């Protein structure tokens, strides 16, 4: 088992926010965590990556990643794992990218930080990764600043960077929520394809259970910091046990679904 | 719908921007629509297709390059000054993210009543009564009147945005991606609220959204826009009968759970 999370609880300034989360994930598997804003889903994946924001901390439980408990590592120990064995894709990669450096410069810096590639090798590798994410003219993207790219292009850059070292575990926090539906559909397909090629496991956090149903092997539904349902995708979608899951399922707008107007 | 009164119509409205290098960019190309009383007209397309530019032109936030905009038969294309201001009584707008549309230093009751104060002298007491009444209509607790925008959740803020759009009792409300920033479950509740308000007050909506599924469920008619042009018009409940390849592409982008 690549990742095994046991009784994970998280608090912010002593206020319990997430309690008793249990799940495991094998290599190549995709899990989706679904829930509304504030349900604690982002806290869970941030805890796995060891970067809870502000005052957040793991108050109890274990996070076993590749045979090692990573719940309480020091910043120094994290340097060798984060970005290499485990990487994150954010909701808006535009916020993650440095606005005053070209994409190429920060991409090359990132590659060289985790490997001993030369500059020209790193440039070549970065271009390959960008091309793999269906970005036309990768050289032009390398010379661009984040604000010169569209939302979909920025997100592709973020995904390309996260995939650089074919991480064993990829964490994606609402990777398509800030995008148009058409771009969302493309990114979802590309993400599934590259993850499969790289053989990575992935946890995707989303509020759209439609996206989760399409991508994931298993689904965990969270509400108010607790897991309300956890199981194989087909079971959760076709035979939801919790009322909350049913509410989420019925809120996904569908063509020919229940109309709001006559 | 065709026997109903036409509230708003546009006749070949175009908006051309001049870029820095002197090139012309046509954001809206000869767009003609008509909106009936009590109807929801959906406008769908990707970012950059010109849907927001089009409604901003209708609202008079920038002048149209060519074409005509008629409100109840009266030409409002080139209104200025006091007459333009008076039009705001009839057409109001709900924005994508009310957090950026509200003054963070104003209490909710003042945010809701600001449009009212722009048109009439209102005592504080009267304003508060109206605010509480509107909060009730958008299903929020009266205590919220005294809070500030940052103390509310995204869904609550959007309800306040709706309350503010309603206070002048407009005939048309333009919703520009009003639910796109919200969780699906909150989106569902806001869509239900908008439909309820329409049944009760007979208000018309122009509903802009990039999610074809949502637009089709909330609209009586849907116009599909691509690169500044309306490429197809369909009844909201007959989206599957679309002919245009772009509409088909939008249809295919919808993730379903069934």
Q: What does this protein structure show overall?
A:
- The complex is a heterodimer of chains A (262) and B (258).
- Chain A has 262 residues and is α/β, with parallel strands linked by helices.
- Chain A has 2 domains: 1-85 and 170-262, Rossmann fold (3-Layer(aba) Sandwich); 95-164, no CATH class.
- Helix content of chain A is 38%, strand content 25%.
- Chain A contains 11 helices and 10 strands.
- A 6-stranded mixed β-sheet of chain A has the order 6-7-8-3-9-10, with helices on both faces. In chain A, strands 2-1-4-5 form a 4-stranded antiparallel β-sheet, with helices on one face.
- The relative contact order of chain A is 0.17.
- Chain B is α/β, with parallel strands linked by helices and 258 residues long.
- Chain B has a domain at 6-97 and 172-255: P-loop containing nucleotide triphosphate hydrolases (Rossmann fold), CATH 3.40.50.
- Chain B has helices at residues 51-58, 81-87, 98-101, 108-119, 124-137, 154-166, 184-201, 212-218, 245-252, and strands at residues 6-18, 24-36, 40-44, 66-71, 74-75, 91-94, 172-176, 204-209, 221-226, 229-235.
- The interface between A and B is large, with 35 and 40 residues.
Strand and helix layout:
The complex is a heterodimer of chains A (262) and B (258).
Chain A: E1 3-12, E2 15-25, E3 30-34, H1 41-48, E4 56-65, E5 68-69, H2 75-79, E6 86-89, H3 93-96, H4 103-114, H5 119-132, H6 138-142, H7 151-162, E7 169-173, H8 181-198, E8 201-206, H9 209-215, E9 218-223, E10 226-232, H10 233-238, H11 243-251
Parallel strand pairs in A: 3-8, 3-9, 6-7, 7-8
Antiparallel strand pairs in A: 1-2, 1-4, 4-5, 9-10
Helix pairs in contact in A: 4-5, 5-7, 7-8
Chain B: E1 6-18, E2 24-36, E3 40-44, H1 51-58, E4 66-71, E5 74-75, H2 81-87, E6 91-94, H3 98-101, H4 108-119, H5 124-137, H6 154-166, E7 172-176, H7 184-201, E8 204-209, H8 212-218, E9 221-226, E10 229-235, H9 245-252
Parallel strand pairs in B: 3-8, 3-9, 6-7, 7-8
Antiparallel strand pairs in B: 1-2, 1-4, 4-5, 9-10
